[in-house]
UniProtKB/TrEMBL annotation:
Gene3D superfamilies: 3.30.70.270. The keyword Signal does not apply. InterPro entries: DNA/RNA_pol_sf (IPR043502), Retrovirus_Pol_polyprotein (IPR050951), Rev_trsase/Diguanyl_cyclase (IPR043128), RT_dom (IPR000477), RT_RNaseH_2 (IPR041577). This is Reverse transcriptase. One of its GO terms (molecular function) is catalytic activity. It comes from the Eukaryota. Residues 48-109 form the Reverse transcriptase domain. It comes from Juglans regia. The lineage of its organism: Eukaryota, Viridiplantae, Streptophyta, Embryophyta, Tracheophyta. SUPFAM superfamilies: DNA/RNA polymerases (SSF56672).
């Protein structure tokens, strides 16, 4: 469910489009003075009771998910009643109901699990070689959004990450190129991650060395997430 008629947008985002990009994974890194702004849209507040139960709110998007058609019908009714109670209206032309697969914040979500959005991966594949630190930060920010899909992500990103350090000399070496290409390749073959079921047990495999740490979270032999 897309932007609600009753709330045209968050003023902070509308006033500073160059800072709050449309696609949050592409947000620029902190520059100059560091500060934090916590934004909790009104829509998130009114659904607080149901968040992460059967509702997810992201800026102006509302995702309703359920285990069965019967549950879904009830969940949609609850969401619409809450919107009505608070005088918020969903534009019908921007709503989609009863989907078996949905694109949401850069992911494809279905009963099979969570997959990366092919459109985002295509953008990564077409990314030009970095020529300065700002471009490296932008690239790492985008691929880093999908790091839980890539086993050993830190190992492949560490080479280019060192170029972003203060006073580091920018030299795009063969090692940087190999890391860049390997990250692209890994994302094109990224697995479909399992949707975790909270009532079932998890298994964690981990490994560590002087160089780093890596682990895999699994449930019923399916990967839920990689971390490194």
């Amino acid at each position: 469910m897309e932007e609600l008629e009753g709330v045209k947008g968050i003023p902070m985002i509308e006033d500073f489009p160059e800072v709050f990009a449309d696609d949050l994974p592409r947000l620029p890194l902190d520059q100059g003075t560091e500060f934090v702004i916590e934004l909790e849209p009104a829509k998130a507040l009114i659904f607080r009771q149901y968040l992460d139960n059967f509702v997810v709110v992201f800026i102006d998007d509302i995702l309703v998910y359920s285990q069965s058609d019967k549950e879904h019908r009830e969940h949609i009714r609850i969401v619409l009643e809450i919107l009505q109670k608070h005088w918020l209206y969903a534009k019908l032309s921007k709503c989609e109901f009863w989907l078996r697969e949905v694109k949401f914040v850069g992911h494809i979500i279905s009963s099979e699990g969570v997959a990366v959005d092919p459109a985002k991966i295509e953008a990564i594949i077409e990314w030009q070689r970095q020529t300065n630190v700002h471009e490296i930060c932008s690239f790492l920010g985008l691929v880093g959004y999908y790091r839980r899909f890539v086993e050993g992500f830190s190992k492949f990103s560490s080479t280019t990450t060192t170029l972003t350090r203060k006073n580091a000399k920018f030299v795009w070496s063969k090692k940087c190129e190999r890391s860049f290409q390997e990250l692209e390749r890994r994302l094109t073959i990224a697995p479909v991650l399992a949707l975790p079921e909270l009532h079932k047990p998890y298994v964690v495999y981990s490994d560590a060395s002087k160089m780093g740490l890596g682990c895999i979270l699994l449930q019923e032999r399916r990967v839920v997430a990689y971390a490194s």
